[in-house]
Amino acid sequence: VVLGALVAxxxxxxxRAMVMGLEALLLATAAGLISLGHDPVGVAAMVLAMGAENAxxxxxGDVGVGLTYMTGALVKAGQRIAAALTGGxxxxxxxxxxxxxxxxxxxxxxxxxxxxxxxxxxWGAATVLAGLAxxxxxxxxxxx
Length: 144
Description:
This protein is mainly alpha-helical. The protein contains 6 helices and 2 strands, in the order H-H-H-E-E-H-H-H. The chain has helices spanning about 1-10, 15-35, 40-55, 70-85, 95-115, 120-144, and strands spanning about 60, 60-65. The protein has a two-stranded antiparallel sheet with strand order 1-2. Strand 1 (about 60) and strand 2 form a beta hairpin. The longest helix has 24 residues, at about 95-115. The radius of gyration is 17 Å and the shape is globular.
């Protein structure tokens, strides 16, 4: 989280592309290290990537949406459901349930990919993330 926040703060408006690039680099590093049998250090690189991910949605130095934990999404969904049941916004819980569902599905698909492909699944994730970072970088440059 600290590393992602430092990169985001340094990058300013271009933070999303830079943080996603950092994540891609960390995942590729993890895949390489694990491929070479350095599992503990590779797992540490994965953990760094997961923490850095939160900085993609940083607003004014604070994380607007936490992406790597499920309890916050569940608590907010529950609070919004309770509010809806007592006359509040009927659908305010929807985004939090979708976030939770995305976290759950992503975890399940990641585990399945790892069971089927092993460390190749990390290379795939790093490649997709690098492509998204490049897309975002080009988009930010063309809009700016």
